[in-house]
Amino acid sequence: MSQTLLAFDFGTLNIGVAYGQTLTGTATELPGLKARDGIPNWDDIEKLLKEWQPNRLLVGLPLNMDDSDSELSQRARKFGNRLHGRFGLPVDMVDERLTTREAKAEAQERGHKGNYGKNPIDAIAARLILESWLNQNPTV
User: Fold this and answer.
1) How many domains, in total, are found in the chain?
2) In a designed cystine with 27, which of 7, 20, 67, 77 is the match (CB 3.0 to 4.6 A)?
3) pLDDT tens digits, one per residue of 3-44
């Protein structure tokens, strides 16, 4: 059975968003969300959920290279718990180590020169998180 997914790259100022589906195994970057100290406008998230109608949500989990929690790990988990509590959808936490570095490199390849404007790095990171989940769950 095919699933549709929304992935979030949690941050205290911006939250990257990407959409994907298991049928095609593809992921697409979406415009990011602003956050105030890690708290999004929940109405904006509700609009995204109504528009894309995902079956599952993914939240990037920023772990340290030694598998320990980073400063943002607990906040990302709390964000995931709030998504589940508010909208009742399953939420998977996805290891996002090195996605920001990879996203910055990809943005640079696209010609961004450091002023990232609408901050595509967060959206690229969300897409990478979603692609990672798709690669780890090919038969879901």
Assistant:
1) 1
2) 20
3) 999 999 998 998 999 999 999 889 998 988 999 999 999 999
CATH number, domain of 115, equals 3.30.420.140
Cβ pair 13, 118 in contact under 8 A: no
Read off the tokens for 52: 């894309």
* Cα–Cα–Cα angle for 42, 43, 46, rounded to 5 degrees: 90
Give the other-Cβ count within 10 Å of 131's Cβ: 18
The H or E element spanning position 50 is helix 42-52
Range of the domain at 85: 4-136
Which pLDDT tens digit goes with each residue over 99-128? 766 666 666 676 665 544 455 778 888 999
In angstroms, the CA 45 to CA 21 distance is: 18
